[in-house]
Specification:
The complex is a heterodimer of chains A (185) and B (168). By secondary structure, chain A is of the alpha+beta class. Chain A is built from two helices and 13 strands. In chain A, the strands form three sheets. A six-stranded mixed β-sheet of chain A has the order 5-13-12-7-10-9. In chain A, strands 3-4-6-11-8 form a five-stranded antiparallel β-sheet, with no helix packed on it. In chain A, a hairpin with a 3-residue loop joins strand 1 and strand 2. The model of chain A has no long low-confidence stretch (mean pLDDT 89). With 168 residues, chain B is α+β, with helices and mostly antiparallel strands. Chain B has two domains: 86 residues; 57 residues, CRO Repressor. Helix content of chain B is 64%, strand content 11%. In chain B, a hairpin with a 5-residue loop joins strand 3 and strand 4. In chain B, helix 3 packs across helix 4. Classes of the chains: A alpha+beta (185), B alpha+beta (168).
């Protein structure tokens, strides 16, 4: 049986023509420079994370409100995939119509942002075209509604929240808010 | 799908971090480095597996990492330059009584790290070391002065034998 063979060559660089080491100092010096920069980059990532650039920090938190004060939303503009967070809507007196508050939320709240539950539980939830209408009794105004989110999709999500009248017709144009939320992987 | 992408990303990210962490995690594992290796491994597992605790997910993650490892090994074998990036190169730390200070500082090694390796070869002090080489796996190879003398004698003997045969 033939066995394939190859001649042994002196292919490894030697030190002092004595010890075959294969040292490549030029490469190693370049690598040390690379290491220096990569650690600086890692340090920047940590600082950016502390600041909230990747979510769950001061820069990630955002607020928006309607001009008439009917809605004041606190949310995280940068979320993390599959990580729980809370979006709160503080309702002002202008949001109440005939003793109830009707809130239309675009379907992305469920599809992309993975809404788990609404607190307090709405008296009625109705799935309509492109969204969900939640109805709450408005015994105590101002009051607060919380959405427990757990994003199910990575990337930019557009969320629209709009107040409706008692017949589920949109209130004047200023009574809606558009939120852009980026979900980190 | 997420498990596979996370496993691929986790594999290469871990490769980069362990590579830039210096040469020692796989070699002379001190308790300090032991903590790093296990903590990083644990964190990568969390992101890779996520909430999915099924056997399917576990098997797919293991297969993906196995495939990545095999693919990387094949690419590395084909392109020798790539092994420099992935494994590093051997570095001479001590050469016939002279420390290579840039290499020692660059690899964050101290004299006692080299002496610890020398002691495992039965050496009593630095003067017995002819070469100390930091290997790609993180261990320090020590060649003693006596090794070199033996080798030198072998070369000389071989040379004399060849000369005497030639004169005959």
């Amino acid at each position: 049986m033939n066995t394939e063979t190859r001649a042994v060559e002196d292919s490894i660089a030697k030190v002092d023509n004595e010890l075959a080491v294969g040292e490549d100092l030029d490469f190693q010096r370049r690598w040390w420079r690379f290491e220096k920069w990569i650690w600086r980059f890692f340090a920047l990532l940590v600082l950016a994370d502390i600041a909230g650039l990747f979510g769950r920090g001061p820069l990630a938190k955002a607020q928006k409100h309607t001009p008439d004060g009917a809605m004041h939303i606190k949310y995280e503009r940068i979320e993390r995939f599959s990580t729980p967070s809370i979006l709160t809507i503080q309702l002002g007196p202008a949001s109440v119509r005939k003793g109830t508050v009707h809130v239309w939320v675009s379907s992305s709240v469920v599809d992309r942002l993975g809404n788990q539950r609404v607190i307090p539980a709405p008296s009625q939830s109705e799935v309509v075209k492109d969204g969900v209408i939640y109805t709450f009794p408005a015994d105590d105004v101002p009051s607060e509604i919380a959405f427990a989110l757990q994003p199910a999709d990575i990337g930019l999500s557009h969320l629209t929240i709009r107040l409706l009248d008692a017949d589920n017709k949109p209130l004047p144009a200023q009574d809606y808010l558009n939120l852009d939320i980026f979900v980190m992987p | 799908m997420y498990t596979i992408t996370h496993a691929i990303f986790g594999y290469f990210f871990l490769l980069l971090v362990v590579r830039v962490l210096s040469r020692r995690p796989g070699g002379q594992l001190t308790p300090f480095e032991f903590v790093i290796v296990f903590l990083i491994g644990g964190l990568i597992i969390t992101a890779t597996v996520g909430d999915d605790k099924s056997a399917t997910n576990c098997i797919l993650a293991i297969i993906t990492i196995g495939l990545m490892h095999r693919l990387t090994a094949q690419v590395r074998a084909r392109f020798s330059g790539l092994s420099h990036f992935m494994d590093g190169v051997p570095i001479v730390l001590l050469n016939r009584g002279r420390w290579h200070t840039q290499a020692m500082d660059g690899m964050r090694l101290k004299d006692d790290d080299v002496m610890a390796a020398a002691r495992t070869r039965g050496m009593r002090d630095m003067s017995e070391i002819r070469y100390a080489v930091l290997e790609r796996v993180g261990t320090i190879s020590i060649l003693s002065e006596s090794d070199s003398k033996v080798r030198q004698e072998e070369i000389e003997t071989a040379g004399n034998d060849a000369g005497s045969k030639h004169s005959e």
